[in-house]
Every structure is written in structure tokens, then in C-alpha cells.
Amino acid sequence: MALHVIVLFALGIIHQVQGLYLSHRDGEGCRVKSLRKPWQDLTDLQRASYINSTLCLMDSPGQQTIPGAKTLWDELHYAHIAQATYIHFVGSFLPWHRYFLVVHETLLRRECGYNGPMPYWNEVADVDDLNNALVLDVKTGFGGNGEGPNHCVADGPFVNLRFQFKEDLTIAESPSCLVRNISDCSFTGASRTNLDACLAARTYDEVWHCLEAKPHIAGHWGIGGTMSNTRLSPGDPLFFLHHAWLDRLWWLWQSQDLPTRLKEIGGANIPVDDSDSPAGNGASSASGNETSSPSCSAPMGGAGGASRGHGGGGTSKPNKGLIDYFNDGGNTTTLDHTLWSARILPNVTIADVMDLHGAFVCAEYV
Ligand SMILES: [Cu+2]
């Protein structure tokens, strides 16, 4: 309840903010695309530069007036936690996370001088051997598994990372560590077969449900811990590589029929009851074992995972304030839908992010 009010308040404040921030774009369309490459294909130097720039975000003072946010990393965290109910299991799931990738990239480049390719995690390459994935390398990657009773990550560059916010946006008395609890069993959802099934989807409703289910959950539950928590997951820097991978899959699907799929959107703005779910799966499957064999253990992170009921989402009735805010004229997601990042960047609409080659995103997957 309290969280609901906070979110509405926060959303209301920024309702007037318009326009685009185009720090590394030229402001006139998209002439120089930002390259997005598999982490596996980056040079050691590029990997080190990306990790250092990420550490810089965790070390740089916050720039918004968000109580409790000490660093830019905290502010990114806040932007996801504050609206987790309205960016998962809804039509804006894919567009909002595409927007968030640009928000993150903008900070990384503008505030921390990163000038290499934006990495994504080619998960299908690691599906048979997650524990030896390059992203988990202690020296060149993001560190390994959690250890000890709390599963705090105990090696690699992010051992000292601490989170200010709890799931309800209250401030933790003692900031918590980065938690991982790797499950190669849960990661099997990233298989080529599952990806191909999503790429064969015929409508946006189908592809969104398909991608948000197995390929999405695989990365979150495969890493586990912080990553398996619906609200807190962007605390783990691997979040951005996982979501760039997912975004690439959406773009691959869009690219099969750009004239139609640059405009194709749908779904609800407020999570609806499972029975209303167009595909009748995906959203409803998220908290179960559908993405993995029954022997997979539940991930750490409590009620996190991709559980939709978390945080009061579930079967919320559309609220007029939110409907007005989203600007779709109802509870069906349209291209006019507002995307918000806690003022880190100005609001954009879904229309602004549909085209990877458009002025706002201006990127290319290679
Ligand atoms: Cu998310």
C-alpha cells in the first residue's frame, strides 16, 4: 500500500518531463550506432574497462533527490524497484527494459567515460556449462558464486558492493551484499530450442510472453540470489548483460518483419489475471518450475524470482491515476505508453524505443 502511494507520487512528479537525452547520439536521428557485442567477444582490455566503469557508477554520488540513494548505482536500482509491478508481466516489459539499457549505458558513458562496446551475455553459448561461463570469471568477469550461509559473492570485482534499498524501498539498516546462488539446472531455460520457439512467435503478445518466460527466467534464476529477485535484480551488474541478450532476441524477432513489428505492441499496463493472459502461459508460469526440470531447487531471493504476485502486483485492478499516467487511454499498452526512469533520463514513449536504429536507442547487435 505504502509503496503504491510512493510510486504514484513519484510517477506524478515526473509526468511533465519530456524530451530525450541523447548524450552519445547526435540528436538528429541515428548516424553512429552504439555497438552491442557478446561479452565473450570483448577483448580483455574492453572487459576491464567495462568493469571499471561499472565500479565507477557504484562509486559516483547520486544526482537525483532520491532519499537513501547514495550512488548512481543506487539510483538505477531505485528506478527498477519503484515500478517493478508495472514493468513485468505487462505489455511494456520489453520496451521498458530496452529503455533501461539506454539509461544505464548513458550513465556509464557520460559519468564514467566508458567508450567500448556495450556487452550482452550470449547465454545459449553457456547453457551447458554455466559454472565456467566467462561472465563469471573472477579476474576478467563479474566474479563467481555466492559463498557461506548468506551466499554473498566472495570474489571478483563486486565483493564490496552493498545495496541501500530493500524491496519496499525502505533503507536497509545494514546494507546487504550481492547474493548469488548459481543453478545450472534453472539456466537450461536459455536453450536454443526455447529461443527458437520465441523467435517463431507470430504476434507481439506471443513473443512477449515467450521471452519473459523461459529465456528471461533462465538468466535470473540461473544466477540466483539478487538476480532472482524481481525488484532487486538490477543490483547485480549481470542484469544488464542478461537484459541486453533478451532485448537482442526481441530485436531479432522484430527484424523478421520490420514494417509491422516496429509498431506492434500490446498487453496490459497493469498485470492482469492469468486467465486474461493472451498466451495463457508465460506470466502464469513464472513462479513455477516450468522453466526448468522439477529437480531444480528454488532460487534464493525469497519471493523474488519472476513471481508476479510480488509487491502487490498480481491481479491489481487498473487504477485511474496510473492509466492516466501511462497515457494509453486505457489498460492496453500502446506506442504512447510512458516510460520512466526516476528522472535519470527524461521520460520517453514506447514509440521512441521500438526501433533499435532510431534516434533514442541507436544501437546495433553484432
Ligand atoms: Cu526488470
Automatic annotation (TrEMBL):
Gene Ontology molecular function, alphabetical: metal ion binding; oxidoreductase activity
Composition bias type Low complexity, residue spans: 277-300
Region Disordered: start-end pairs: 269-314
Biased composition (Gly residues): 301-314
SUPFAM superfamilies: Di-copper centre-containing domain
InterPro entries the UniProt entry points to: Di-copper_centre_dom_sf, Tyrosinase/Hemocyanin, Tyrosinase_Cu-bd
Protein name: Tyrosinase copper-binding domain-containing protein
Keywords: Copper, Metal-binding, Signal
Residues making up the signal peptide according to the UniProt record: 1-19
Annotated Tyrosinase copper-binding domain residues: 88-105, 236-247
